[in-house]
Design a protein that fits this description.
Layout: E1 22-23, E2 37-44, H1 55-73, E3 78-85, H2 90-103, E4 108-111, H3 115-128, E5 131-134, E6 151-153, H4 158-171, E7 176-182, H5 185-200, E8 204-211, H6 219-228, E9 232-236, H7 240-251, E10 259-262, H8 267-273, H9 275-278, E11 282-285, H10 293-306, H11 312-331, H12 336-345, E12 357-358, E13 364-365, E14 368-373, E15 386-392, H13 394-397
Parallel strand pairs: 2-3, 2-4, 4-5, 5-6, 7-8, 7-9, 9-10
Antiparallel strand pairs: 1-3, 11-14, 12-13, 14-15
Helix pairs in contact: 1-11, 2-3, 4-5, 11-12
């Protein structure tokens, strides 16, 4: 697999150079940084089921983060960005991360959509004492059973999304559930975490069926969900799998007789499906482009390059890279443990998160938002898709540290 060192889009002349090397030499002081270069590797799904919500748009967001940091902070070190396609396969992701760490002296690997790839790369990062910043993967295992002291889970996890959406749907009368679950770490975690929320709020899970990831034909699995008689079919999948499930449920007449609950949906999914097919659905997000002047300003810049509004994965990646680079500059070092300590010490305050905090288990805790998809008549301009129904404080959205299964947390 070839590493991409060239931009996927037009960028300003300052940044248009080989390997996307960005940096300004300021003053004579030498940074205590290995070879005076900070290297960031973006490992993502460039062409598969998750490419729309992460993929090329993640590379765009990463470039924006580096460019903005260099322009604002004028560091004495250079920043280089490389990217590659992990194809949603853990072995490819771990091999590429190892190559980057060993041969290209990459300091941090980030994005890592698909939980299997994130879990694989986390192990390599720990072995090599490098940092993994995870913005795309969702499994709550990342900061529980599989946690380590060099990884940060940034944008969301299956506990937070299942907690927000599951609770809202049960309160709206959806008491009986049946899960359609992607059969790998992410889907399994999402089903497990949402089941706990459903049962805690008086609902009941009648069963589940697991489908291969990725899947284009979900008909047999949807028919099992239909036969269950459950009021709600919980979609414990994401990206193209979720889009296919929604489309096929409509084709088979499953909806509107049974309600679909998208337990992890992104604004790009809503854009692909359209408001007519998704109106009224609840979903839980960490970010929405149209929330306030800050989110709108950054998102419009992103749109100029990508021609789509950003997902929470892409916005979260910008936030994570910026926080990392600011920590490196603050301590004048790229030493993994020192940078991790600085990142945990300083709150995250940007357009993505306010007063965000990285816990000792590696989870970046911040507010989440319960959204409801608008009716077509209520959407007044492009990408005007959500009504924000509730702000869920970080302490309520994410699993309490007291319940953590992370070996780093002493109880």
């Amino acid at each position: 697999m070839k590493t991409n060192k060239t931009p996927l889009f037009q960028i300003r002349p300052l940044a248009a150079m080989a390997a996307l090397a960005l940096g300004l030499a300021c003053g004579a002081a030498q940074a205590e940084i290995s070879d005076n270069v900070v290297r960031i590797g973006v490992l993502t799904d460039m062409s598969g089921a998750y490419s729309d919500l992460a993929g090329p748009g993640a590379v765009v967001a990463a470039n924006m983060a580096v460019e903005d940091f260099v322009a604002k902070q004028k560091p004495a070190f250079k920043v280089e960005l490389v990217s590659a396609d992990h194809q949603n396969k853990g072995d490819i992701a771990s091999n590429k991360a190892r190559e980057w760490f060993d041969r290209e002296h990459v300091d941090v690997v980030t994005e890592l959509v698909t939980s299997s790839t994130a879990l694989a790369v986390m192990k390599v990062a720990k072995e090599k004492n490098r940092i993994a910043l995870i913005t795309g993967a969702g499994s709550s295992r990342i900061t529980n059973e599989d946690c380590n002291d060099v990884s940060v889970h940034w944008a969301y996890d299956t506990y937070a999304t299942g907690n927000g959406t599951g609770k809202a749907v049960v309160k709206q009368g959806g008491k009986t559930w049946y899960f359609l679950t992607a059969d790998y770490a992410f889907g399994q975690s999402l089903e497990k975490d949402t089941t706990a929320v459903i049962e805690a709020n008086g609902g009941k899970v009648l069963g589940s069926v697991r489908h291969p990831f990725p899947s284009t034909d979900l008909s047999s699995y949807l028919l099992k969900a239909q036969a269950s008689g459950a009021q709600v079919i919980g979609l414990a999948n994401a990206g193209a799998d979720t889009i296919n499930a929604v489309k096929q449920a409509s084709e088979f007449g499953i909806t509107p007789k049974q309600t679909l609950a998208g337990l992890l949906m992104f604004i790009t999914d809503i854009n692909s499906l359209g408001l007519k097919a998704t109106q009224g659905m609840y979903l839980t997000e960490a970010f929405y482009w149209d929330m306030n002047p800050e989110t709108r300003a950054w998102s419009k810049r992103f749109f100029e390059r990508q021609k789509k509004m950003p997902t929470m994965v892409q916005a979260g990646l910008y936030s994570a890279i910026t926080h990392y680079l600011e920590a490196v500059k603050a301590i004048n070092s790229d030493d993994t443990q020192k940078v991790m300590a600085q990142m945990k010490k300083v709150p995250v305050n940007d357009f993505f998160a306010k007063n965000g905090k990285i816990r000792d288990d590696g989870l970046m805790v911040h507010d989440m938002y319960l959204m409801q998809v608008k009716k077509p008549a209520d959407s007044h301009y492009p990408w005007d898709y959500y009504n924000v129904r509730a702000t869920i404080p970080g302490a309520e959205a994410f699993e309490p540290l007291s319940q953590s299964r992370c070996p780093l947390i002493k109880k």
